[in-house]
Here is the input.
Amino acid sequence: KNEVEQSPQNLTAQEGEFITINCSYSVGISALHWLQQHPGGGIVSLFMLSSGKKKHGRLIATINIQEKHSSLHITASHPRDSAVYICAVGEGNKLVFGAGTILRVKS
Amino acid sequence: DTAVSQTPKYLVTQMGNDKSIKCEQNLGHDTMYWYKQDSKKFLKIMFSYNNKELIINETVPNRFSPKSPDKAHLNLHINSLELGDSAVYFCASSQDMTEAFFGQGTRLTVV
Here is the structure.
């Protein structure tokens, strides 16, 4: 069993929909990261959080340390949000990754 | 200015060859990493260096040898390449395990 579990694995949404991607982890962590990987491969860090909630534009990330759970929300989704979203937890000196969620937003 | 740059972006080579991938970061970070992304897009750490010293080596075959001439560079040498080494390799850097910055990836294809 992977230490970091993401759901769903695949997600198709209509433009404008509210999207939620979930991440659960089973290890003690220093911080949790949400990453975005577009077709073409580059990986971009969206958020790093260790408590509470962060917001950047239409993206919101929350974390519940007690429940070892984080969510990434996208409001008013757009086709350009189509990408792979990866949850990663900081464990010691390394990141441990979830398997990623493939998001496709249709216009 | 690119924060983390790795070269080459694409690398096609024959089995048995030796190849290197270079990585440089201009962020002044102390820690650099190599990650491997397999065909199912799953990322896994290979190595981590902090101030030129190896701190993580995650059961990677001895054919893979990282080299860090200074804290801004972490190169990956791979000897006797095998078909199973085909993957995308990402270099990354961070400071004190804060936000990680990734290179654009190197797609290695072994034929």
Q: What stands out?
A: The longest strand of chain B covers residues 43-50. Chain B has no helices and eleven strands. The interface with chain A takes residues 31, 33, 35, 40-45, 48, 50, 55-56, 58, 88, 90, 92, 97-102, 104-105, 107 of chain B (CB under 8 Å). Chain B has a mean pLDDT of 92.
